[in-house]
Amino acid sequence: MNDITVLKRWIGGDESAQEMLARVPRPFSLLPPLHRVPFRVGNVVELVGPSSSAKTHILIQTAIGCILPKNWNGVEYGGLDQLVVFVDLDCRFDIMRMSEMLIHRIIEAGGTANQDYDENLYKLCMSRFLYIRCSNTFEFLQTLKTLHYRLEKEKEAHGFCNGLNLLMIDSIGAFHWVDRASTFLPLKGNERKKLFLQTVSEAVVRETKKLMQFHRMLIIATKSTIFGDSYPTPSNVLKRNLTKDDGQDERDSRNVTRNHQNFPYHEYMPSVWQSFVTHRLYARSSDNHLVTSNHQNCPLYLLEWLMPRLNIQEKFVVKEAGIFVV
Fold first, then answer.
1. For every residue of 4-21, which 3-state class applies, written as one string?
2. Architecture per CATH, 27-229+264-325
3. pLDDT grade, residue 169 (50/70/90)?
4. How is the chain split into domains, by residue range?
5. Is the peptide bond before 230 cis (omega within 30 degrees of 0)?
6. What is the model's pTM?
7. pLDDT, tens only, 263-288
């Protein structure tokens, strides 16, 4: 049934309540630690944090919850039963780590006492995980431009029609400083034209919006911070504003390095990307450690909701089987 037929039936009132509920996008929840806020199709989630703050582990756990089926051979897995596209811009993704976490999840849900697991289910889940590696901005933009056709083929192969597609980008600012440095280099011969940060971000947002017009999509992007995880104090913010000259203020406004939201990190992405984001979380490691029941000393991580602002700070640990909220 094409869109024109659906529109005619809707105008004519020939639509059942079941068809209406199937057509209208409903909110859904992801696995912890991203479970506090329900998400909708079209949301863009930014996961910010310094290096070694478990951002990629959060992506992996969320991806596993998406590619797993709701039930399989009478066993409830509670997955979303959909596709995941993982665009790796850091080029440091560990596929073996994801494989281990997926196997642990299958064994845990199946309730098996030994390490045996359903290999057919494992193969099905891994076939729903599309991994793409990009080594520069041009490859990233090319991926976004051609991703629509790739998704069409994958959905046809898996029998998906209007299902949710989860697009993950790790990490959105990976090429920011390389592109910024290239603006100061002279062109030689027939080299490609220079990359300007604002133009690149506009192209990324534009191509992503095109994808969202054709596919029911949720986007989760990680972003590394550049000044660690120290929070700015009001006195430091006031001092910086008082000592700043007008020219510096104009440059900061143009480069989007300061903002009125008082982020716990130094923002460097252009405003076109910042305004595109609908949800923002801040992850960081804690100075404390958690001693578990088997006497393992696990590093403790913290996750804070910045947008929407929640007075809740998630505490979680990363174990062999995945992430556990404490």
1. HHHHHHHHHCCCCHHHHH
2. 3-Layer(aba) Sandwich (3.40)
3. very high
4. 27-229+264-325
5. no
6. 0.80
7. 677 888 999 999 999 999 999 998 87
